[in-house]
Design brief:
Residues 48-201 form the DUF1638 domain. Pfam families: DUF1638. This is DUF1638 domain-containing protein. This protein is α/β, with parallel strands linked by helices. It contains eleven helices and seven strands. The chain has helices spanning 5-10, 29-39, 60-70, 88-96, 106-111, 113-119, 131-135, 137-142, 154-158, 173-186, 200-208; strands at 20-25, 44-49, 75-79, 99-100, 126-129, 163-168, 189-194. Strands 2-1-3-4 form a four-stranded parallel β-sheet, with helices on both faces. A three-stranded parallel β-sheet has the order 5-6-7.
């Protein structure tokens, strides 16, 4: 059984055994496990750091370093993009000799980094959500920004955005409805784009070789 989103947010996922470790953000666990199962990659092990680290990006690099150094696997792959570390995570991965997925953030590699780079030239007023962030909208957006207590802050935070783009990894009508409600709560136009897993798949294929 896959771990629940609350566990992935607060504590992450411990490794379970395998020759090759994929060290990922907890927000990516469901996608990695789905790809792993679909391909029968039993030799791939998944460890996830708590997804809530994204609320404190200055801590990501040190936590990744700690986990990589503690791993006893033959190889380690880091499934974090830059994620607000200002290039520090990439430099640390080079120092540790481990491969890291390319991209500034998961929105980019889910869309496909090349595609997202082109979209970002005109889509700079878009606010993005993935499957995980739609499910965890209150925990990662609404409550941390204080909008549950002070809804009048919405315009201060989101006044320069024009739309919410839901990058759907799966086709789930319930998630579609929830994402549309997130857009309504933020006062933004709604757009759904099915991205699937994007650049995540070739990265995992490389790790599985």
């Amino acid at each position: 059984m896959d771990p629940d989103d609350q566990t992935l947010t607060e504590t992450g996922l411990a490794p379970r055994g395998g020759r090759v470790l994929v060290l990922a953000c907890g927000a990516l666990a469901h996608e990695v496990l789905a790809v792993k199962r679909a391909n029968g990659w039993d030799h791939l092990d998944l460890q996830c750091l708590p997804a809530k680290l994204h609320l404190y990006p200055d801590k990501i690099t040190s936590e990744v370093e700690r986990a990589v150094k503690a791993a006893s696997h033959e190889r380690v792959f880091v499934l974090y993009a830059d994620c607000g570390t200002g290039g520090q995570l990439q430099e640390k991965c080079k120092e540790l000799g481990v491969e890291m997925i390319a991209g500034p953030h998961c929105y980019s590699f889910f869309e496909g980094n090349a595609t997202f780079a082109k979209l970002s030239e005109t889509e700079f007023t878009a606010f993005y959500l993935t499957d995980f962030l739609v499910r965890q909208f209150d925990a990662f957006v609404w409550r941390p920004m204080g909008l549950d207590r002070h809804p009048e802050l919405r315009d201060m935070y989101f006044g320069h955005y024009t739309k919410l783009v839901y990058q759907a990894q799966t086709n789930d009508p319930a998630l579609d409805a929830k994402a549309e409600d997130c857009a309504r709560r933020l006062g933004l136009a709604y757009e759904r784009r099915f991205t699937g897993y994007g650049d995540l798949v070739p990265f995992l294929e490389s790790a599985a070789k």
